[in-house]
Amino acid sequence: MQTLRKHFNKMGKIFCTVLFLLFGTVTMPSTARSQAALLVLLFGEDVASENFFFSLKLGGNLSSLSGIDDSKSALGLNFGLMASMKLSDKFYLVPEFMPLSPKGAKNIPFRSTGNVSLDQVIQPTTSTAMQMNYIDIPIVAKYYVTKDLGLEAGPQISILTSATDVYRGKIKEDDDLVYENNVKSSLNTIDVGVVVGVTYSLWDARGGKGLYVHARYAYGFMDILKDNPGDAIKNSVFQFAVSFPFINPPEQQGGAK
């Protein structure tokens, strides 16, 4: 009876934790990062086992926009949470929640600010960048080719949380110009795509609990612009990250290996 009660307590904590991550990520993007991270730190090791564990993930996005010639890639910081579920010795299912995933590009063609007079002043002297942030929700199937090297692929849904056109230039020789224009209403809120990547496990790091290194490519299938009369503009992102899992040692898992 006591063993059964411990089992239900553990499953209850897992269920509540997953619900919190889903709710916090989707409904509170400005505060979800710190709250979700704190929850994983408090309960991650308590619910963790070799078959189910949480991880914190941190890295960078190198993003571009396909369909725009001569644009330059933009760099940004990504952050999120992972839940790894072991299906077999080789296969894992890994849903992720990334409330911070910046995308966009620099040096894109001038886009109207919506103010004709302002356009006439800033267009000849500025470069334009599009800065967007998404909540990424990939669901990845991971196959370990070796003990340490895993291949991964899966679908991804991205939810737009902010979008800004940033104009930089000079009006006069010593007069710098920086103008930001909120363009979220002109972009589609949802993007659906696919991710493929590799994971390498450094099992000797963090007291034997492991450190994961990730390299991934994500591509969006949908045009990011509403009512776009030209070529479709789509998200294209290379992601590099490390993740810190919370896994109990085997001796704390009832002898599990």
Question: Would you give an account of this structure?
Answer:
With 257 residues, this protein is α+β, with helices and mostly antiparallel strands. The chain has a single domain, classed as Porin (Beta Barrel). It contains 3 helices and 9 strands. Strands 1-2-3-4-5-7-8-9 form an 8-stranded antiparallel β-barrel. Helix 1 packs antiparallel against helix 2. The N terminus and C terminus are likely disordered.
Strand residue percentage: over 45%
Q: Output mean pLDDT.
A: 79
* CATH architecture type: Beta Barrel
Give the spatial strand order of the biggest sheet.
1-2-3-4-5-7-8-9
Biggest pleated-sheet summary:
8 strands, antiparallel, barrel
Poorly predicted segments? 1-30, 250-257
Q: Share of helix among residues?
A: 10-25%
Q: Please name the CATH topology.
A: Porin
Structural class: alpha+beta
For the termini, the CA-CA separation is 25 Å
When the domains are counted, the total is 1
Specify the CATH class: Mainly Beta
Give the radius of gyration: 22 Å
The H/E string reads HHEEEHEEEEEE
Keyword list:
257 residues, alpha+beta, Porin, eight-stranded antiparallel barrel, 19% helix, 52% strand, elongated, disordered N terminus
How is the secondary structure organized here?
Layout: H1 2-27, H2 32-47, E1 52-66, E2 72-86, E3 91-108, H3 116-122, E4 126-144, E5 149-172, E6 175-182, E7 190-202, E8 211-220, E9 234-245
Antiparallel strand pairs: 1-2, 1-9, 2-3, 3-4, 4-5, 5-6, 5-7, 7-8, 8-9
Helix pairs in contact: 1-2
